[in-house]
Design brief:
The chain is an alpha+beta fold. 39% of the residues lie in helices and 23% in strands. The strands form four sheets. Strands 1-14-4-9-8-2-7 form a seven-stranded mixed β-sheet. A four-stranded mixed β-sheet has the order 10-16-15-13. A three-stranded antiparallel β-sheet has the order 3-6-5. The two termini are 32 Å apart. This is Putative polyketide synthase component. InterPro entries: CAT-like_dom_sf (IPR023213), Condensation_dom (IPR001242).
C-alpha cells in the first residue's frame, strides 16, 4: 500500500546520510538572474503570501512534502548526483525564484538550466528520528530559491532515497513524477546505459496559459458565474469541517491519521453499488461525505471542494509543478437515498470539474464581495480528495519500494481529507490541528464516514444489485435505509 501521512510515520532506514543541496555557484547564478515579467501561478502566489505572512508573524506554515522510497544495494553517489541534476534541469518550476517588493511578488528565472547544480554533502550516521528532523530542517524556506533537497540513508543491503520539497514547486502528482524521473534514471545509470528523457511541458507554459485564460474574465464569464452561484448557495457556510476544532491559534502543530474505510471485498462491493445507481467511485465518495456530514449536522445540502489535476493531457502529464486546482460540488441530500445522492454528486462533480482551472482567488477579484452577494468564509475550507492507485501504472512498484509521501507536522487550522483506493482496500487520511478537541472531532467524523461507506458496501448484496438492475429503467429510485447505529455514533 502507498503510504500517506505525517513525517513521524516515515520509516527511512537508519545509517549514514548524504544530502544533495544547491551549490554556492547555483545560488549566485539565481541571485544574478534577470527579473522575469511572468507572475507566479495563482497557486504559487497564494502559497508565497502565506509564507510571507507566516514569516512576519513568526508562525511557519505547512509547506514540505517528503517523497521517499527504498532502493536495493549501496547508493552510487555519482550516478544519483547525475539523476538528481537531470531532474532539476528538466522541470522549469525549479528554475525560478520569488521575492517581495512593496508587497508585490517578483520572479527571477535562470535562462540556462545547466547553471543549476546540486552537490552531495555527507552528514554521518543518523537515527530514524534524526533523519526525519534533518529532512525538514535542512530544506530552505519557501521564500528561498532552493527550497528542495534530496537525500539518502544507507544500510548494508539497501538505502532510502527522499526528496524534501516545498509545496511551491510540487503537488500530489509531482510526487509520483519525482519517483519516475529519479528512480528510473538512477537504474539506467548504474546499469551503464545513457538516460533518455522525453521533453515535458513546462510549468512556465502552464502559468502563462493560466494567466491568459483568466485575465479577461469578468462577471459575464460562465466560470465566474458558476463559482459565484456556488458561493451564494453556501450562505456563508463554505465547505469546512463540520465539527469543533478547538484552539487553532495558540500553536500551529498538525497531525495526520489514516484509517481503512473498506477492505478489498467491500471496496469491490462499493464500486458495484456506485455503478449500479448510475455513478462512479468518485460520485460515491462525494455522496458518502455528504451523507456523513448530514448525519453529523442535519444539513440538507452538502457543499464541498475537490481537487483536480489541470495538466494538459500528453504535454504536461509528466511535468512537475503545482497544477492541482479546486472545484466546487453541491449535493442535495433529499431523503438520504444513496442512489439519489450519488447520482446528484456525480453530476455536480462532472459538471464543475472544469472550474479547477479558475482559481477562487480570481473570482474574488472581479468585484467587491458585497456586490457579489456572497459572504467570505470564516473557517478554513476543507478539501476532499480521491485517488485510485489502481489506475496508476507504477502503483505496484510503489508498493514494492515502500513509496510514500509525508507532510510536515504543521497546520493552518483546518482539515483536509484524502480518500485513496488501493489494490486491496480503501483508506482515508485526514490532516488536522494537533489538539485534543480536533482529534476527538476527527475520530467522530471518521466513525460516521466509515459507517456510511460500509453500509453502502454491505447493502450492495447480489439481491440488491439485481433489484437495481430490474428497476434501472424505472423512474422510481432504489432506496437504501441507514442503520440507527449511525445516530448512536454521532451522539457520542
Amino acid at each position: 500500500m502507498v503510504a500517506l501521512g505525517p513525517i513521524t510515520s516515515w520509516q527511512p532506514v537508519p545509517g549514514p546520510v548524504t544530502t544533495w543541496m544547491a551549490s554556492d555557484a547555483s545560488r549566485e547564478n539565481m541571485a544574478k538572474a534577470d527579473r522575469d515579467p511572468l507572475p507566479p501561478s495563482f497557486q504559487q502566489a497564494s502559497h508565497l503570501r502565506s509564507a510571507f505572512g507566516g514569516r512576519a508573524l513568526g508562525r511557519p506554515q505547512p509547506r514540505l512534502m517528503v517523497v521517499s522510497w527504498d532502493i536495493p544495494g549501496t547508493c552510487d553517489i555519482a550516478a544519483m548526483t547525475t539523476a538528481i541534476n537531470a531532474h532539476l534541469r528538466r522541470h522549469d518550476t525549479y528554475h525560478s525564484s520569488f521575492g517581495f517588493q512593496n508587497g508585490n511578488i517578483f520572479r527571477r528565472t535562470i535562462s540556462d538550466p545547466e547553471q543549476i547544480e546540486f552537490l552531495p554533502f555527507s552528514y554521518g550516521e543518523m537515527s530514524v528520528d534524526d533523519i526525519r528532523e534533518h529532512a525538514l530542517t535542512s530544506t530552505p524556506d519557501t521564500l528561498d530559491w532552493d527550497c528542495i533537497t534530496f537525500g539518502i540513508s544507507q544500510q548494508s543491503d539497501r538505502f532510502t532515497f527522499y526528496a524534501s520539497a516545498d509545496h511551491l514547486h510540487i503537488d500530489g502528482m509531482s510526487a509520483g513524477i519525482i519517483f519516475l524521473d529519479i528512480h528510473f534514471a538512477y537504474q539506467e545509470l548504474i546499469a551503464g546505459r545513457p538516460v533518455i528523457q522525453t521533453a515535458v511541458g513546462g510549468y512556465r507554459d502552464y502559468t502563462a496559459r493560466q494567466t491568459a485564460h483568466i485575465a479577461d474574465m469578468d462577471l459575464s464569464s460562465p466560470e465566474i458565474r458558476d463559482w459565484i452561484t456556488f458561493a451564494q448557495d453556501t450562505e456563508g457556510e463554505w465547505p469546512s469541517f463540520p465539527l469543533e476544532l478547538g484552539d487553532t491559534w495558540t500553536n500551529n502543530n498538525g497531525d495526520f491519521i489514516t484509517v481503512e474505510l473498506l477492505n478489498g471485498e467491500e471496496t469491490a462491493a462499493f464500486d458495484d453499488a456506485c455503478r449500479n445507481v448510475g455513478a462512479r467511485f468518485s460520485g460515491g465518495i462525494t455522496a458518502c461525505a455528504a451523507l456523513a456530514e448530514h448525519h453529523l449536522t442535519g444539513k440538507t445540502t452538502y457543499h464541498g471542494l475537490a481537487p483536480s489535476d489541470t495538466r494538459m493531457s500528453g504535454v504536461e502529464t509528466l511535468s512537475v509543478g503545482w497544477f492541482a486546482g479546486l472545484f466546487p460540488v453541491t449535493v442535495p441530500i433529499g431523503d438520504g437515498c444513496f442512489g439519489d445522492v450519488a447520482r446528484a454528486a456525480q453530476k455536480s462533480f462532472d459538471a464543475n470539474r472544469n472550474l479547477a482551472n479558475v482559481p477562487l482567488d480570481r473570482v474574488l477579484e472581479v468585484a467587491p464581495v458585497n456586490q457579489l452577494g456572497i459572504e467570505l468564509p470564516t473557517k478554513p475550507m476543507m478539501m476532499v480528495s480521491f485517488l485510485d492507485f489502481g489506475k496508476i501504472p507504477v502503483a505496484e512498484l510503489w508498493g514494492e519500494t515502500n513509496f510514500g509521501t509525508y507532510g510536515d507536522n504543521l497546520s493552518r487550522g483546518g482539515i483536509n481529507l484524502w480518500i485513496n483506493r488501493h489494490a486491496d482496500r480503501t483508506t482515508v487520511t485526514v490532516s488536522f490541528p494537533d489538539n485534543s478537541i480536533a482529534r476527538d472531532s476527527v475520530h467522530r467524523y471518521i466513525a460516521a464516514l466509515t459507517e456510511v461507506f460500509t453500509d453502502v458496501a454491505r447493502t450492495a448484496t447480489e439481491d440488491w444489485i439485481e433489484e437495481v438492475a430490474r428497476h434501472a429503467n424505472s423512474t422510481a429510485a432504489p432506496t437504501m435505509t441507514w442503520d440507527s447505529h449511525l445516530d448512536e455514533i454521532v451522539a457520542k
